[in-house]
Write a structure and sequence with these properties.
The complex is a heterodimer of chains A (about 110) and B (about 120).
Chain A lengths: L3 E4 L2 E5 L4 E7 L6 E6 L5 E7 L5 E4 L2 E5 L5 E6 L8 E9 L3 E4 L3 E6 L1
Parallel strand pairs in A: 2-11
Antiparallel strand pairs in A: 1-3, 3-8, 4-5, 4-9, 6-7, 7-8, 9-10, 9-11
Chain B lengths: L3 E4 L2 E4 L4 E8 L5 E7 L6 E7 L2 E5 L6 E7 L2 E7 L7 E8 L12 E2 L3 E5 L1
Parallel strand pairs in B: 2-11
Antiparallel strand pairs in B: 1-3, 3-8, 4-5, 4-9, 5-6, 7-8, 9-10, 9-11
The chains are: A mainly beta (about 110), B mainly beta (about 120).
Chain lengths: ~110, ~120
């Protein structure tokens, strides 16, 4: 089935440093979504990217969709302790299926 | 509050027990999902229902039996589970597909933490 590779699996950063997580697919994607799951919480939708080369920003978060629509990234500028959690990309296959990447667990050291 | 409510939040059961997980969504969505989240396989899609019909079953063992009586409710019936089935079971809903239009975001419940002894 459809698979998406997400790297890195873990990332520890000092507060104020930047952070980036990447998702890569072997096939062209129609769109890609990003979610954040706080420790002990549930995944919460962040954004959906649809267009080739699309870049969207949410405050300190920047989301990119590759030109070939096979990869995507999430970049956080100047991390804060509130950014702690696991970030998942998710791809849709078929009408209603949403498959999640393995996630990147971010730890921010104060 | 996400509009998706799961009960119970915690469940401990023996391998011979029969129990059910319940999910209810108040968002008027047409699609509902069950995901399993464990340390080994984060967010593993189990079942998808669209307009109360099951549209996806990702090779889930028959000891897990879903039920969707209407578009607002989703159950996961559990019987003769194994210790490796211990995990967080997350329910989610989305607007649902209409023809070829991609659906939007998933709204997750808080999850049911299952421990099988």
């Amino acid at each position: 089935g459809q698979q998406v590779m997400q790297i890195p699996q873990y990332q520890h950063v000092q507060e104020g440093e930047d952070f980036t997580t990447y998702c890569n697919s072997s096939t062209t994607l129609s769109n890609i979504q990003w979610y954040k799951q706080r420790p002990g919480g549930h995944p919460v939708f962040l954004i959906q990217l649809v267009k080739s080369g699309e870049v969207k920003k949410q405050k300190r978060l920047t989301f990119q969709f590759g030109e070939a629509k096979k990869n995507s990234s999430l970049h956080i500028t100047a991390t804060q302790t509130t950014d702690v959690g696991t970030y998942f990309c998710a791809i849709r296959t078929g009408a209603n299926n949403l498959f999640f990447g393995t996630g990147t667990r971010l730890t921010v050291i104060p | 509050e996400t509009g998706v409510t799961q009960t119970p939040r915690h469940l401990v059961m023996g391998m011979t027990n029969k129990k059910s997980l319940k999910c209810e969504q108040h968002l008027g969505h047409n699609a509902m999902y069950w995901y399993k989240q464990s340390a080994k396989k984060p967010l593993e899609l189990m079942f998808v229902y669209s307009l109360e019909e099951r549209v996806e079953n990702n090779s889930v063992p028959s000891r897990f039996s879903p039920e969707c009586p209407n578009s607002s409710h989703l159950f996961l019936h559990l019987h003769t589970l194994q210790p490796e089935d211990s995990a967080l079971y997350l329910c989610a809903s989305s607007q649902g597909d209409t023809g070829d239009i991609d659906t939007g975001e998933l709204f997750f419940g808080e999850g049911s933490r299952l421990t099988v002894l």
